[in-house]
Amino acid sequence: MLVLQRELLQAWTAKVCAPSCPKVAEFYTDYHHSKHVNRKHTRRYQCELCNSAFHLNADLRRHERTVHRNELSGAVEEFTCPNAECPIPGKVFVRKDNFERHVRGCGRSTMDV
Fold first, then answer.
1. Judging by beta carbons within 10 Å of its beta carbon (0-12, 13-18, 19+), is residue 103 exposed, middle or buried?
2. Are 65 and 94 in contact (CB under 8 A)?
3. Spatial distance between the Cα atoms of 12 and 42, rounded to a whole number of angstroms
4. DSSP state for residue 9 in the 8-state scheme
């Protein structure tokens, strides 16, 4: 039964990623193949300020918000640890995910903030 399933699976395989790809992956539709290529092999979004390139538009936007926050117009939210016993007091976090990870490590949840 398992052999039959494997044969059916191989028969459905429409696209296989390039041999140079470190991830050996099989794709059953053109959509999944193009999604993989766009996310892993093609840097379609380029920063106009420093020419860094990114696979996803969301990655470019995050880069602009964090790296170029002083050059872009508009306020960027910044976070500082509220823990008085923080080993790096006064550190400013511009990414909320990094701030939340830091606060968890300091022993307080962001709900206490």
1. buried
2. yes
3. 25
4. H
